[in-house]
C-alpha cells in the first residue's frame, strides 16, 4: 500500500521540522511517511528540542534523525512548512500548508513544550484528514 510522503520544512531543519518528523513517525507512520528537511543544515538537532521530545514522548531524535537538505529526502506529496516568516522554499508537491509556528530556539522550556504540543495536535489532525480522505 502506498503511503503519502509528508515533508516538514523549515530553514535549518534543526528544531520544529525535526520535532514534527519525530512525532509523525511515532503517531502517524501507519498513515504517512514523515520526513524533515531545510534549505540549510545545522551540525546537530537543537539540544532543547531533543531534550523536550525525549522528556514528553520518550523519543531520542539523535538516534535516527539528522539535519537534511530538501534534496536529501524523497519527493513529497505534502509539504508542511513550519512557519514561514522568513524565506520559504518552493518544493513541488500535491498539497502544501504552513503551520505558522514560532521558532522556540533560545526560549524557555515552556515555549518548547507548547511548540511540541501544537505539533502533536497538528500531526494527529493531518493523520485524521488523510485517513478520512
From TrEMBL:
| UniProt entry keywords in alphabetical sequence | Arsenical resistance
Matching entries from CDD domains are given as:
LMWP_ArsC
Please provide the Gene Ontology terms (biological process) for this protein.
Answer: response to arsenic-containing substance
- Check the record and name the InterPro entries matching this protein: Ptyr_pPase, Ptyr_pPase_sf
Q: Phosphotyrosine protein phosphatase I domain location, by residue?
A: 4-129
Q: Which PANTHER family match?
A: ARSENATE REDUCTASE (PTHR43428)
Name of this chain's protein: Protein-tyrosine-phosphatase
